[in-house]
Amino acid sequence: MKQSKERPDIRHFTAVVDACGKAGDWIDATDVFQQMQLEGIEPDAASWNALLNAIGTAGQVEKMLAKYKEMCATGKQPNIVIMTTMLDHAGAAGEMDTVKDIWKELHDRQLVPDVKCYNTRIHCYATAKDPGKAEEVLGEMIQSAAITPDAISFSRWTCTG
């Protein structure tokens, strides 16, 4: 990026952070993110999500949570996409207490979970072999006036047994 006459903007940096994450290189993703900040570019929700996803994909849940806290300390508010990303990686790592903490924080911040967020939560419990909790989450969706379960909701729930 430095060799180009054009100055990279947030889209360029976010794309590189995302690419590093997809390549499994969370350290380079973190370095690129820090370089973006050093160049005076303020991260937005998409760039923070790309970083958290890169770190979480590598199984570094504690580091992901630390970066999330860093994001919050800067005054940035998480959105439902960021919270869903963190739920996904905490669940994949089998850290169900962390899943519960993220879900609580999501509600404490008055974020409204969408169907993808609920499906991710169901998948967390399916992965943890907890069919009762997965069914409970599906029940929450069914009782909700705002969220309608989709085929993925039922598919993830049936994978618990």
UniProtKB/TrEMBL annotation:
Pfam families: PPR_long
PROP1-like PPR domain location: 3-147
Ranges: PPR repeats: 9-43, 44-78, 114-149
Gene3D superfamilies attached to this UniProt entry: Tetratricopeptide repeat domain
Keywords: Repeat
Superkingdom: Eukaryota
InterPro entries: PPR_rpt, PROP1-like_PPR_dom, TPR-like_helical_dom_sf
Signal sequence range: none
Keyword Signal: no
PANTHER family in UniProt: OS03G0856100 PROTEIN (PTHR47447), OS12G0638900 PROTEIN (PTHR47447:SF17)
Name used for this protein in its record: PROP1-like PPR domain-containing protein
